[in-house]
Amino acid sequence: MKTTLSLLAATALAFCWGANTTYAADHMTVGFSQIGSESGWRAAETTVTKREAEKRHINLKFSDAQQKQENQIRAIRSFIAQGVDAILVAPVVETGWDAVLQEAKDAKIPVVLLDRNIRTEKKDLYLTAVTSDQVHEGKVAGDWLVKAVGSKACNVVELQGTTGSSPAINRKKGFDEAISAAKNIKIIRSQTGDFTRAKGKEVMESFIKAENGGKGICAVYAHNDDMMIGAIQAMKEAGLKPGKDILTISIDAVPDIFKAMAAGEANATVELTPDMAGPAFDALAAYKAKGTMPKPWIQTESKLYTAKDDPMKVYESKKDLGY
Ligand code: GYE
């Protein structure tokens, strides 16, 4: 009974997306609304997306929104007007997408979300989302810190990602859950560094100033490595020893965090692959060619790396991953 129902639902969904239209699986024209290049990871995602499109003979129309949602919405409308075959969106924040994604749906243009999610009541506004489990990433980070500090009292400062973005919301949630049972670990300051090195450095400077020159800080949790790299700079300029006096845990596993680990200035990171476009293009090709409905969420892996994992070897290996 269940199978029939899900088959019916899939067919209905496929129909409303116009899967009955025949498309050439390759030589698709795909519009990509990218957030910007706020971090090394985001730049790598763009590189990989362009490379994967080329490999698949996909005509990619790329738009850089410079971190602004209104630029993303404008780009999506332009893609719709151009009659592209599909649209990729990395949504800068979770909300405010219903209207423009409804326009894409009405134009029978499938949308795939990359690396971030949206919050909407209407579940059929996108074909699938290719993202990591960001709550899990925060939990992996928190679990590492709980193990690293043992029963020692530990005051943590947190550098949050972009306000209102799914990774910032979810990575905070997961980390808070992981440390909730450890009464000796407390987040004493938490502020957005907007996923950038510059803002991460600036906010960390203010934390150091507010916490007796950093003496009150036992660890930094940053929602991405780029903010951590900025924070490491701030700690060193204040005469502190990041990775030693103050533990560091962040997310993305970009090459430069492994260089910091090799120098004894960083402790751990949770890996996020920059290759979200490969699975997205594969799902789109199957959908266009055969009407195959992908799973609503294509989840990417999250692996913990620490300074014990031969950081320079990992650093070298990152060159093939779009960095
Ligand atoms: O961690 C960060 C980028 O959306 C999960 O965005 C992505 C995050 C990533 O700015 O480096």
TrEMBL record:
The secretion signal range is 1-24
Please indicate if the UniProt record lists Signal as a keyword.
Answer: yes
**Keyword annotations from UniProtKB, A to Z:** Signal
List where in the cell it is found: Cell envelope
Which part of the chain is the Periplasmic binding protein domain?
Answer: 31-285
**Superkingdom assignment:** Bacteria
Recorded family membership: Belongs to the bacterial solute-binding protein 2 family.
Name of the protein in its database record: Galactofuranose ABC transporter, galactofuranose-binding protein YtfQ
Q: Which organism is it from?
A: Ferrovibrio xuzhouensis
**Upper lineage ranks?**
Bacteria, Pseudomonadati, Pseudomonadota, Alphaproteobacteria, Rhodospirillales
Gene name linked to the record: ytfQ
